[in-house]
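Notebook p. 47: complex prediction with zinc ion.
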Amino acid sequence: MNTTQVKAFGAEASDADLIAMNIQRREVTDKDVEIEILYCGVCHSDLHTVRNDWGGAKYPAVPGHEIVGKVIKVGSGVTKLKVGDLAGVGCMVDSCHTCESCKQDLEQYCLTGFTGTYNGVDKHIGGHTFGGYSEKVVVDEHFVLKIPSNLNLAAVAPLLCAGITTWSPLRHWKVGKDSKVAVIGLGGLGHMAIKLVKGLGAHVTLFSRTPDKEKDALELGADAVVISTDNNQMKSVKGKFDLIIDTVPYVHHVNPYVTTLNINGTLVLVGYLGGLEPILQTVPMIMGRKSVAGSVIGGIAETQEMLDFCGEHNIVSEIEIIKMQEINEAYERMLKSDVRYRFVIDMASLKA
Ligand code: NAP
Ligand code: ZN
Ligand code: ZN
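Predicted complex, structure tokens below:
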């Protein structure tokens, strides 16, 4: 298959900085859309992958799965988009299309595994997939999203991962006007969760370790803030929540949050991958029919639903625009929770 070389930014090893490099993209096939990338959000998963926190990282690693841009070429069979349209790509670029999950629009749970936008197996040209820290991307139209035209394009980028990852559990656990929801951690995912819960008309509380984020959280729409290191504040919300979305990226104490669930409540882990320490206590779960669950991103139809909802409700991410060349510094700041609330790369800087 013919390929073309495009500029990108990536890391050659888990302990290396990201640097400028060239990668190959396939020529569009019948069903493909070629997108000139205008903005790409910086997700904590990008950092986890580059640093091989989860194992299995492939190098060079070119991250980025919050991609927005303009369609510059379409294959002959493409019907969803045309040249000149705004387009988005999130965390997936392929799946099997035939398994029980794919048939139910749950490509993120494809039984053969979805193809990640980066660090996945490239079925077309071999090797592994490269993400959005690059000039262009070529993606099967099924995995390309339409972008509402009324929103700030740079601030839409984080919806493609941070937005859908928090939207999907809100929909699965049927959050509505009477729900009491809490969000743990005010970062990229957490701040989107607050906005989306408010959009759905429910009550939302933020749990944060960082007292000086309280003012921001209230401005973002939170109804209340609980500083998780303050035992009295934690006790004040015992038994309160129907749903908790836990976005913390590293191992942390989950048991104190389970006690803040109402009967039948669910705590959904979306941030941390791995074993919990201290171990999960089952007594509060059994005695209150409470659940601790997990969730990964969302399906393509659900991602479009979320984007359309954000268009109708004027919801976008709070962003700090950076140049591609500032990415290593941005990762260090993300590790210190010093991002309010999502870095977005202006990809014009890559061409400079
Ligand atoms: P982020 O912007 O860095 O935000 C994480 C927030 O968690 C921080 O702002 C901080 O909030 C809190 N936090 C950080 N370290 C902590 C620690 N050691 N203990 C307690 N709290 C801590 O990250 P993000 O981009 O939102 O991503 C969050 C996690 O979700 C990452 O692990 C990412 O890989 C994962 N993720 C999962 C999915 C999925 O499909 N399940 C999709 C995207 C991302 P406070 O300062 O308010 O405490
Ligand atoms: Zn992500
Ligand atoms: Zn499948």
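Notes: Residues 95-96, 99, 101-102, 110-112 surround zinc ion (ligand 3) (CB under 6 Å). The domain at 162-294 is CATH 3.40.50.720 (Rossmann fold).
Next step: compare against the earlier run before touching the bench.
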